[in-house]
């Protein structure tokens, strides 16, 4: 049957099960937007900046497991997507971005709002296309979704000239795609699985480091079975948080630069590290030669390019985490490692990492803890990047799968506001809290208009310290408190919320923290809380970049009265 290119795009998206699209229109993509009313099943969310369209699609994808979709017009519309695409690429998030392009006859002639979008986005997408004929659209979209969600997931961009959206072609949506040069390896080599099982059986001090791959693969049950069957403590990377329940006796929390001291010490003492769906990136490993110096390494990852990239692997296992763990678990007999588990428990007692100052001041750690208590942990937490991100990772205890959404590899400030939109629209029945830095929040706060327009029930906790806090912490510790370009002026966030028709509250004393959180929870609709927190509070523990566990700073200067945040509810 004949369809316009724009109709083919919409029909194809429906065939892929797409229900929400985030985007902004413009001249080159206008034919696609003008076709949208014919397809009421495709809900479009008009954001205020294209970067936020990509981040919203990213957040939607992370909580649903589906491919996120965003649209933008040519030129600046498309280039504004780049940060969001790079963020999704670094964090292995499946996304399809569709951009309008100038008409075919104008390509290469520096036409108004023309940009070589496929060239610009080549380094930050898993694959991209320029479609020059409407008859190729259906097949291209089928391929794009397959590539985005299969193997190691990632973003795919489809650039479509305006006149291709307008021309007619026969529409038949293909049932499958064949890409001979792209065959993700899913199952894991049986001989290597046996070698891994043997190493695990022989190990005395093994640890698991579980990453984002566990969540992407939805391998929660398989990871838990491995940990319990072999009695191995589980450490979760920043993006692996919520892949293993943190109330489990074998949970050791997050490792690395701002990870739990006891998690880092356990890795340092280990004789076997089992890396599952993680990259052994610099924030976890630190100085490579000092990382787990006595340990052999088993590395399970679907991307063969990650094997031996940063850390030398003893047994590589290339495949889908869920499938590989399922096969590995069948090779393992139940094991007793009570001595190792007790040793790790002793390390936890000797090196507690949930410490906060016992003060009446408003501390960010305390705010996070109170949000955890108010929600009883039953919430999706979305963060930007910086100190607030680390406190949210440390002091909220995650027991629900895929309940922590953050920017990991790229470290994108401003991610929290649009990603929270995507998370809430993807999981409308879930409570969503966006924990924000005041600096990052101002990078994407225009999306409060999107939130108000659609009455999206997100609760915002802004940590207002007037600093780019993580950079300020580095300046304090390593640059003799030479605070260059880190302190800034903030607006009145409560008045700002009011301007958008959103409920806003300000908290300036510790006594008001929990009461205001409860008040926000009782409001049906978006709420913004301006927490005026201690301006020079630091994140601990901390391993300075490029160093090792031996140089870890576990706590602030001596003399402060510290309490465990698990007991700091009052």
Q: Can I get a quick summary?
A:
This protein is of the alpha/beta class and 570 residues long. The protein is built from 23 helices and 21 strands.
What features would you describe in this structure?
It is built from 23 helices and 21 strands. By secondary structure, the chain is of the alpha/beta class. The protein folds into 3 domains: 2-170, 3-Layer(aba) Sandwich (Rossmann fold), CATH 3.40.50; 190-350, Rossmann fold (3-Layer(aba) Sandwich), CATH 3.40.50; 355-539, Thiamin diphosphate (ThDP)-binding fold, Pyr/PP domains (Rossmann fold), CATH 3.40.50. Helix 7 (137-149) links the parallel strand 6 and strand 7 (155-161). Helix 3 (50-64) packs across helix 18. The longest helix is centred in the N-terminal third of the chain and has 15 residues, at 50-64. The protein is globular, with a radius of gyration of 24 Å. The N and C termini lie far apart (67 Å). The relative contact order is 0.11.
